[in-house]
Design goal:
Elements: E1 3-8, E2 13-16, H1 22-31, E3 39-42, H2 48-60, E4 63-67, E5 72-76, H3 99-106, E6 108-112, H4 126-134, E7 138-142, E8 145-149, E9 158-160, H5 166-177, E10 182-186, H6 192-203, E11 207-209, E12 215-219, E13 227-230, H7 235-247, E14 251-255, H8 263-270, E15 274-279, E16 282-287, E17 303-307, H9 318-327, E18 330-336, E19 355-360, E20 363-368, E21 376-378, H10 383-395, E22 398-403, H11 415-421, E23 426-429
């Protein structure tokens, strides 16, 4: 099932609970390969990337007990696992975070060119290769693949990232916890999911200082131990439900255990006339009248939303604000400072009747408030772009179709079920 049929024009109302953040869950799953002791994880979401990783673990010979109904996962990667038949999961960026543990256990790993995630633009593997080499790994290139060989022991190192990459930061930490000595990383990513990842490693016995900042200090340990952990609410999903509530003129109370991460997001919602409130563990987005872009105090400039590494507005959430901008009266410039070419999907907005101008590979201007019509649109392989297209379809009276919306399943379990429970009319159908 890859397409979404949406009968729009229905305000979303009710209460919903977000799932855990896949960007915390997936690297933690990769990290469990560094220990021979049992690990128990709670609130593990039923998403495609989780299923791919668990299938990979089974191929290695790991003991995997997953109850998706309760979200409880019991993992045990005993010594003596075999990698003869193992092939890194395809179609997911998180596969690259299996490399440190695979090197630690088996001494070598092969990276093929289909180890990718969302088509967010240019996403190079070079920073990861630099990290592996810095710790002493040997890298051999061949057509369509890279083979990485582990040194006898990872050697502690100091490293300075060219940019604050989430997955590269996590790979550095995974290598450093298995290295001999103290490692330092400068320009580390500090997103909430990176912090959660580091905190779980600390629970397993890792020694990490500077969590939440741009500099990390990691002392290598002889071995990591087992742990039991419950994942936190995904602030991405909280923000997404709030945006869907606002664009449909609804009233959805979203459980939010991550309200401390929302001040800048609240101000970004306010740029479109959406007021977000946080009370008693829940968040709401309220709109008085039609959506309207707030005029900047500085004369003759466009209102803008800039996405960059945390603590900026996350690039992953930029598409939901693009959808709000299409609906809101006024003009907004969107600037993706992370991924080149990640706004190319904006041509699909015109099928709804939106006015969008792509300035360059990083910047987009939306002239909002135009009359919109139902349409059939096609999503690229980007999770929240598919959701942004759904948001617009849900706000328009009539039947729309989102083709190739399957990326949603990579991050949002029970997406259709949750929305229909809130009053939407949406269903999955089999695509061509």
């Amino acid at each position: 099932m890859s397409n979404l049929i949406v009968h729009g024009g229905r305000p979303l109302r009710g209460t919903v609970a977000p799932s855990a953040n896949k960007n915390a869950v997936l690297p933690v799953l990769c990290a469990t390969l560094l220990t021979d002791e049992p690990v128990v994880l709670h609130r593990v979401p039923d998403i495609t990337d989780v299923r791919k990783l668990l299938d990979f673990f089974r191929t290695l010979g790991s003991q995997v007990e997953m109850d998706f109904a309760s979200g409880t996962l019991k993992l045990h990667h005993r010594s003596g696992l075999a990698d003869a038949e193992a092939r890194l999961p395809a179609g997911m960026r998180s596969s690259i975070m299996l490399v440190p543990a695979m090197l630690h256990r088996f001494g070598r790993v092969r990276l093929e060119d289909d180890v990718t995630g969302c088509t967010l633009g240019v996403r190079e593997v070079d920073p990861h290769i630099e990290v592996f080499r810095t710790f002493g790994a040997r890298v051999e290139l061949e057509p369509g693949a890279v083979t990485i060989f582990a040194p006898q022991h990872f050697t502690a190192t100091d490293h300075w990232l060219e940019y604050a990459s989430v997955t590269t930061t996590e790979n550095f930490v995974l290598c450093a916890v298995a290295a001999r000595g103290r490692s330092h990383l400068t320009n580390a990513a500090c997103e909430p999911h990176v912090q959660e990842f580091c905190n779980v490693l600390a629970l397993m016995g890792a020694h990490i200082l500077g969590i939440g900042g741009s500099q990390l200090q990691v002392d290598g340990v002889d071995a990591l131990g087992g742990a039991e952990y419950t994942f936190a609410d995904d602030f991405h999903e909280v923000a997404t439900f709030l945006a869907m509530s606002a664009i449909t003129g609804g009233d959805v109370a979203v459980r939010n255990g991550a309200a401390a991460q929302f001040p800048l997001l609240d101000r970004t919602f306010a740029k479109f006339g959406v007021e977000v409130s946080h009370r008693d563990g829940f968040s709401r987005a309220q709109v008085s009248g039609p959506l309207k872009v707030r005029t900047p105090f500085t004369a003759n400039i466009l209102q803008k939303v800039e996405a960059a590494p945390w603590p900026y507005v996350p690039a992953d959430l930029l598409p939901i604000f693009v959808a709000l901008g299409v609906r809101a009266e006024g003009s907004v410039m969107y600037w993706n400072k992370v991924y080149e070419g990640a706004l190319g999907w904006s041509s699909e907005l015109g099928k709804f009747g939106a006015h969008a101008v792509l300035c360059d590979p990083h910047r987009l201007i939306i002239y909002g408030g135009k009359p919109l019509i139902p349409a059939t649109v096609e999503s690229p392989y980007i999770i929240r772009v598919a959701i942004a297209l759904f948001m617009l379809a849900a706000s328009i009276d009539g039947r729309s179709t989102i083709l190739n919306a399957l990326p949603i399943r990579r991050a949002h379990p029970r997406f259709v079920e949750n929305l229909n429970a809130l009053g939407a009319s949406v269903e999955w159908v089999v695509g061509d």
